[in-house]
Amino acid sequence: MPVPHALLLDFDGLLADYDHRRFLLQLADAAGCDTVQLDTALRSERIELAHARGELDGVQLLQALNSRLGASLQASDWQRARLAATSVRRDCVSVLDQLRADVRLAVLTNNGLLTLPVLQQLLPDRTVLCSAMLGVRKPDPAAYHAACSALQCDPARTLFVDHLFRNVQGARAAGLQSDTAYHAQSLRRLLRRQHLLR
Fold first, then answer.
1. Are 98 and 194 in contact (CB under 8 A)?
2. What's the whole-model pTM score?
3. How far, in Å, are 7, 25, 99, 151 from residue 46 at the CA level?
4. Nearest residue to 113 via CA among 88, 135, 91, 130
5. End-to-end alpha-carbon separation of the chain, Å?
6. What confidence category does residue 45 fall into, taking pLDDT thresholds of 50, 70 and 90?
7. pLDDT tens digits, one per residue of 1-11
8. Peptide bond into 139 cis (omega under 30)
């Protein structure tokens, strides 16, 4: 198997911890509703999923939410809530500082465009590819092909790492090398085994 020349990494669950309950609490407070109403609007009516697929942009998502909730949410409300609910795993991110200089690196995450600025803020100087940009979500093999195209890298020489095995399976179906990692130790061990660390 060829040594990878590109690395794609999951965000939530690998490079960061995300507390969805905290996100709902803060956003519901900004909307002046309860978390059940907010969660119902986001999930039951599938507008959050549509946003993550790129079918709704940030303005459209907020318009849909505000219409359902009688609220006046702004992008800044969403982003403050997402930031408050997200804690970067510094030990995992520090592993990436040990990558060989010739390895292309990007984060591949199932998120919408409203969340993208938060991820870019949390991971400065890193390339973040979100599903809304690509028009398809993991574990659909098309998501990995789109990510490799954006990085201009060969899928067969790209390693994808995620904490969810179903996403790993999707990457393998797309022809990428792929494996799971759950914390800094397992990530470092995997990257060392793939000869990606200096």
1. no
2. 0.94
3. 31, 19, 38, 30
4. 130
5. 20
6. confident
7. 889 999 999 99
8. yes
